[in-house]
Amino acid sequence: MDRRAEAARLRPAYQRELAQGTERFHHPRRTDCPWCGSARLRTRLRTVDLLQRKPGTFVLDQCRDCAHSFQNPRLTADGLDFYYRDFYDGFSGEALKGFADAGFTRNRYLAAARSVLPFCRPRRWLDVGTSKGHFPQAAREIHPSTVFDGLDIGEGVEHAERLGHVTEGHRGQLTDLAPKLAGRYDVVSMFHCLEHTPDPRQELAAALAVLEPGGHLVIEVPDPECLTARILGRWWVPYFQPQHLHLIPAANLRDELESLGCTVVAVDRREPHIPVDLAGAVLLALSRFLPRDDAPWHPAPPGPLRRALRPALFWAAVPLLLAAFAVEQLTAPLVRRTRFSNAYRVVARVGGADGG
């Protein structure tokens, strides 16, 4: 793709949208917690779009009673469309692919696939938020006789079906497709997608609806209780604004699943840790402070000096980026055993301890 030509082609449409302001992309601000209803809120984070540098300011509030964190005011459907657009596909798709996939390695997929082995031998597995089906492709090594289907809102799931990474690719929202898929699966996985959903409770109910009695739900999400979040602030990658709408403490998720009639059979704060916090912080800082790239949401393309400075400054910072990455990989086994672990996994069975 000729990025300069593509930016010039897309710029008029983006500028027409932005001329109307970004406030219209937000719902009214909530005065209570969407999880427990408490009015005791505090501002946890105020930031901007650090990756694409699209205009707008985003706030994460935290409930002082249940510790749930949520984007407030939350993006509307039009807002989500605006900020998701050109991130995973389109203009920024290739440039940001490495960042979006950071930490999602084959070994992590295999570990996630093994997480259900103590509890079941899956026959049919639905991977929600599957993108291009990288998890099902890897998980077949652990579950060779399992039929893997995928679900995603993006076009990647159709690509996954064409490549054979999934048997069936369902494009759309889980909450919309659940009635059609009711009771078809004995495992549903949701790896780092629940935090993207406007209403996590509705998403959980939909996931349980597509499971058969005794089936298992596997969820991985960022851990908002991670101590690194306090140290790095806006540079902590799992805040991931404006895309992450909810950050759910493990106790809250466990209580919600049990209230829906599930038995939580495993909670793991170690293995799901993704060692990208330091390197990710460096990348976010570079994205924020380097001269901006040519993108259609900016009013005009950068001049020759800025175009020359951006790659030069980036390559000058590469040694720092590599050092941060190396430190994280070396310390990951230790970090996983501490409160600095940045993600957790929950495995829950539909019904009681005996699957009934």
Describe, in plain words, how this protein is organized in 3D.
The protein has 356 residues and is α/β, with parallel strands linked by helices. It has a domain at 104-222 and 248-270 and 343-350: Vaccinia Virus protein VP39 (Rossmann fold, 3-Layer(aba) Sandwich), CATH 3.40.50.150. Helix content is 38%, strand content 19%. The chain contains twelve helices and eleven strands. It has helices at 3-18, 77-84, 93-100, 106-114, 134-139, 156-163, 174-181, 200-209, 227-232, 250-259, 277-289, 304-335; strands at residues 41-48, 57-63, 69-71, 124-128, 147-152, 169-171, 185-191, 211-222, 246-247, 262-268, 343-350. The strands form two sheets. A seven-stranded mixed beta sheet has the order 6-5-4-7-8-11-10, sandwiched between helices. A four-stranded antiparallel beta sheet has the order 1-2-3-9, with no helix packed on it. The longest helix has 32 residues, at 304-335. The mean pLDDT is 94. The chain crosses the membrane at residues 312-335. Keywords: Membrane, Methyltransferase, Transferase, Transmembrane, Transmembrane helix. One of its GO terms (biological process) is methylation. This is Class I SAM-dependent methyltransferase.
